[in-house]
Amino acid sequence: MHRFFIPQPYGEMMTITGVDARHIYTVLRMTQGTKIQIVSDDGVTALAEITEAGESVVTVKCLEVLAESHEPSVRIILAQGLAKGEKMDFIIQKAVELGVSEIVPVAMEHSVVRLESEKAVKKAERWQKIAEAAAKQSKRDVIPIVQPVQTMEQMLANNACSCKLIAYECEDKLGLKAALQKQQELKEVLLIIGPEGGISEAELHQAQAAGAWGVSLGKRILRAETAALVAAAAIFYETGDLGG
Ligand code: SAH
After folding, report:
1. Residue 212 CB less than 6 A away from ligand 1
2. What integer pLDDT is reported at residue 78 of this predicted model?
């Protein structure tokens, strides 16, 4: 069943406008009586029926609130060192599918990509769209936010999670699994992953000074996109959010 996010608080009658309305009417060719799932901006998921379909407005009547949540029990904020174009798209799409709650692109010292402010805004818009499409496809209850590109310092200042982990390929003492098991409670994790060029020593120290633990993802060096997705998947596995 198709799922649409409606930027309105939940109500019995709701209206879908903009690109989603056009998509329903002209692409999916849905008509009166077709059932869809809606998610309101106050987080209610409901079964709804189309009562009127038009190119610019689709009206739906909500039939039943669906209690089942598709959200994981742990919030992962993925702070991803800026990687080259398509890799970021891939990471964002897959991270959203896996259940990551927020993505912060971080301009790191060894990031090959440098985004001037105008380009960075355009990119952020594009990434947000990728996140939205992935959220719909994977039946998330929320659309994860892709934050504007930040420096390491800004990202650390903006994220005061009690559990902060920085995947560091030279770490040989603390593994991800042990780091997770040392936590009292796993409700929110700030997961920092480097770009293709890796994390600089200065960045590692900066993160550690902000309370992050350097963790290993095993003895092989993973590419940035592999590292981000593997680490997120391993955290979700540990908390029972991945087939648990
Ligand atoms: N520049 C490095 C590799 C960077 S890999 C090199 O070529 O040697 C990109 C990022 O993935 C790293 O910064 C780190 O955050 C993560 N990563 C990859 N493999 C890892 C591992 N085995 N343990 C921990 N982190 C890893």
Report:
1. no
2. 98
